[in-house]
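Why does this matter for the project? Reviewers at the last site visit asked to see concrete outputs rather than summary tables. In response, this paragraph embeds two records directly. Each consists of the residue sequence and, immediately after it, the corresponding structure tokens. Nothing has been edited or filtered.
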Amino acid sequence: MTGAPHESLPQPLPPAGDAVPAGTVPGGAAHPALAVVRAPAQVTSAVLVLHGGRAVDPSPARARHLASLRMRPFLRALARGLPPDGVLLGRVRYRRRGWNEDAADPLRDTLAALDELVRRHGHDVRVVLVGHSMGGRAALRAAGHPAVHAVVALAPWCPPGEPVRQLAGVKVLFAHGDQDRVTDPAASLGMALKARADGGETAALVLDGAGHAMLARASVWHRTTTGTVRGLLGLAPLPDVVRAAFGAPAALHL
């Protein structure tokens, strides 16, 4: 990676979604790791969105931080593209803003959210994790949770030595802009190939002209992510380029 993820300049926006208690925040207060944006009466599948953050920052994560705001268009696109029946749409709420080395705080929050989801809706619920940057790293690490069916990793932070064994049996799409200067596209795509060599089912896409913020070619990011999630849940065929990428020996360009 070209440098540790470092988000800047928070902007105000009210928090979204209902939530259920899980985990703790600094100081010991109850923390809602699972924030539900939309839930049907009967849940058979779920999509959880994980935003980015910083390599090291123990301060509390806030909904107004830029990393969180960046995923709001993806939540809106997913809400439009997923059926209202059967599929829960939510996000993971972090206690802290950073990964924080061995503490791996966003991973702990993601696992807490998954556990709560299973507690509420049963062990048969199938979950697709959609994570950006630090959230992509957390999603990939959490892929070994029994509820996780698939992962969509958007410009994920993949430092050297990241494990891949947990990706066995999970479908994973890695998507990275070739102009990303925050997380390394080569490291991301290298992890995809490493996981595949270890028996994982992975696909890799490179978005030409796109950077880390996913603002350039935003509609392509949103459309590809939503179409992939629909395909991974069996609600529609995978987008043609994603289906081809799962069988391609190297990353495909989009």
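We now turn to the second protein, recorded in exactly the same manner.
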Amino acid sequence: MNGNTDTSNRPELIDVSVLYVEDDDKIREGLMRFLTRRFKTVLTAMDGEEGLSVFIAKTPDIVITDIKMPIMDGIEMIKNIKQRSPDTPVVITTAFTDVSYMIKAIELRADAYVRKPIDKDDLFNLLNKILIRRQTPTDDTSIIKREVQLLRDRYEKMKRMLMGAVEAASHALATIDHFTADHQRRVAGLSEAIVAEMSLSEDIIFKIKIAAMLHDIGKMHVPAEILTKPAGLTEIERAVVKTHAMAGYEFLRKIDFTFPLADIVLQHHEKYNGSGYPLGLNGSNILVEARVLNVADVVEAMSSGRPYRPSLGLDMALGEISDRRGVLYDPDVVDACLNVFGKDFKFQE
């Protein structure tokens, strides 16, 4: 716990205890100073786990919390707090791009949210309204449901806008190399199927689709005559092609996505045993989305024709990932991929 300020000798302060949970030291300390000038007791914590411990020990009247934090995030902390004390008001602080988390928080009956950067006066007015509402309780279930639906609608709109931008970028690549553009689309379909087979979340499915549609975007920096060369590549040309993972990362890291898209693209040629590129990562050090992409990428590439060779066939592609399961490829991803094809998966033409 980073702060526990009791200023009971100042009668003008509101006789309420506030718990503020935020992992950013500068933000936490700045807002703590503001709150201690207005409330009798202010408690702080650096993450959800510490925040929950403080809540259990001190039972504050109001909780203000960030959502994205290490160790335990705000969603899990809110869930635990509401299980213990359903009537304790919880206010979440979040960036606009955290809308999916906001939906989850409100579904857990968080009472309100404020966007970052936090307007301190707006926050104070909001806390006052919550305190007044506590004194005159009403059934606000319909209000919560309406807020959830509005956030869901906004989230879906943002997803559609993002997918439109991704498809536009993929079409731009198609003007240079239609083989790569078709490859990305087909890898996206297989990756989605693999993730669904692994019973991962809807969020992961959406992320993998975006990443798959862009995983070779760095090839826009590879000369077209190399990408479309009708013969095998030289060692130097293969080295040039390998730069596409880093080039894609450099392009995407400048865009403020709500998930590590640039890192997924960077890692999609890493291998389970550490023999891949460009970083030589291994095992769980590779993002799960990148591990999925790696398998889908290999299967699609081997089973499809290229300018310099015909298709090697699906059987050879599935044999490759089976034979090197747990060596080059994540065993769970391989198993899911084989199950997907066992259910008669077909690449979209």
